[in-house]
Write a structure and sequence with these properties.
Elements: H1 7-20, E1 27-32, H2 39-52, E2 56-61, H3 79-103, E3 108-116, E4 123-128, E5 133-137, E6 146-155, E7 158-161
Parallel strand pairs: 1-2, 5-7
Antiparallel strand pairs: 3-4, 3-6, 4-5, 6-7
């Protein structure tokens, strides 16, 4: 994809970040199905994602855009295969996200409170400094404020805290 950095260099940067910061949430964007992407390339992408342990992966399916160099490149990946690879990577991304959420259990979090939860009376929700959705007991007076909480459980795509 004409990137100036190799996968190994990118992984090295992620290790540097982990050694410099306390429990960083490293996120990435991955394009699946770029022209010329082979099964081996895709497998290497999945191995790298697992090895690095991303907190979140944004998955984009390649689609040719007229007038761009990639639209005319040889070895275009079929739409069916792009969909299949995106689904497979999505499953991996979900497992990694759950692993990251669970790694936060017991840790203090700073949460920007965004809303109340009508489906869970007496609770509010917001985003932590790790860009993780968090739900905890509270009321509407907390909206727009930062709250200090401790992560208790991780399930359903969010953290429950106190």
């Amino acid at each position: 994809m004409n990137r100036p950095t190799s996968a190994a260099e990118f992984a090295d940067r992620c290790r540097e970040i982990r050694s410099s910061l306390d429990h960083p949430a490293i996120c990435t964007d991955i394009i699946v199905g770029f022209p010329g992407e082979t099964e081996d390339d895709f497998a290497a992408t999945c191995r790298a994602a697992e090895s690095i342990g991303f907190a979140k992966i944004h998955i984009f399916r390649f689609s040719p855009r007229p007038g761009t160099p990639a639209a005319d490149m040889p070895d275009q990946v079929t739409n069916r295969l792009v969909q299949q690879r995106a689904a497979e990577l999505g499953e991996l991304a979900g497992r990694l996200r759950t692993r990251f959420f669970r790694s936060l259990i017991g840790r203090p979090l700073q949460v920007m409170v965004e809303s109340t939860l009508p489906e869970v009376p007496g609770h509010v929700s917001g985003m932590s400094e790790y860009h993780v959705p968090v739900v905890f007991p509270g009321d509407r007076c907390l909206i727009g404020e930062f709250a200090s909480v401790t992560a208790q459980t991780a399930q359903g795509g969010r953290i429950s805290a106190r």
